[in-house]
Design a protein that fits this description.
- The chain is mostly helical and 205 residues long.
- It is globular, with a radius of gyration of 18 Å.
- The two termini are 30 Å apart.
């Protein structure tokens, strides 16, 4: 996790784990961004925490669907297609996409550019980014209870799915181990954070 020098909610809970890792180091995965430029645009467009965390969850879930670890209903696929069409129209209107470009038949087809290991690391990156964003919001004294609850639910539901991944080589095995360690650690930290942050009375929209 990053921003260790900043006052935060989740990151201090990692101190013991970080010390253990320092005493028992293992080769780290190469630093790389596992999101596409279009995905980064989606993230940048979602400025508020309440909007940004669902984007990260969606990007992580897309990777699990593409890996065959999560099922996507026809309704969800249709929603993906409509969102892709809407976004393409906005890009064409802004002049950032060719007017002749057509939306992809399969909204997840772009993920073919990633290896299976990279897809798992993209799942991990999404979790890290959500935690970092929650920490940032907490340091600015913003309400983070709902995002924490959403993160806890997301991790609780996806960890059993990721555990079913069958690695085919050492690279995939390392990516799986990293993803599981990261997700389980994040779940534990999130549970501890929920014990600190008071429940809010306001209803979600």
């Amino acid at each position: 996790m990053r921003h260790l020098a900043r006052v935060s909610l989740l990151i201090p809970l990692l101190t013991a784990a970080l010390l253990t890792a320092a005493l028992n180091p293992r080769p780290a995965a190469p630093k790389k961004d596992y999101f596409t430029e279009d995905e980064l645009d989606l993230i940048r467009d979602a400025q508020e925490l309440a909007l940004r965390t669902p984007v990260y969850f969606k990007l992580a879930e897309r990777r699990l669907v593409f890996l065959g670890l999560m099922q996507q209903s026809e309704k969800e696929r249709e929603k993906e297609r409509k969102e892709e069409q809407r976004r393409l129209k906005e890009q064409q209107k802004a002049g950032t996409a060719p007017s002749t470009k057509k939306p992809a038949e399969d909204p997840l087809a772009y993920l073919r550019d990633f290896t299976r290991s990279e897809l798992l690391r993209g799942y991990s990156q999404a979790i890290d980014e959500v935690m970092s964003n929650i920490d940032d919001a907490y340091s600015r004294k913003l309400d983070v209870r709902d995002p924490l609850e959403d993160l806890e639910k997301f991790l609780r539901e996806t960890i059993p799915l990721v555990e079913k991944f069958q690695p085919k080589n050492d690279g995939e095995r390392a990516a799986l181990e990293d993803a599981m360690e990261n997700a389980k650690e994040a779940l534990q930290n999130t549970k501890e954070a929920l014990a600190i942050v008071p429940k809010t009375e306001k209803k979600r929209r």
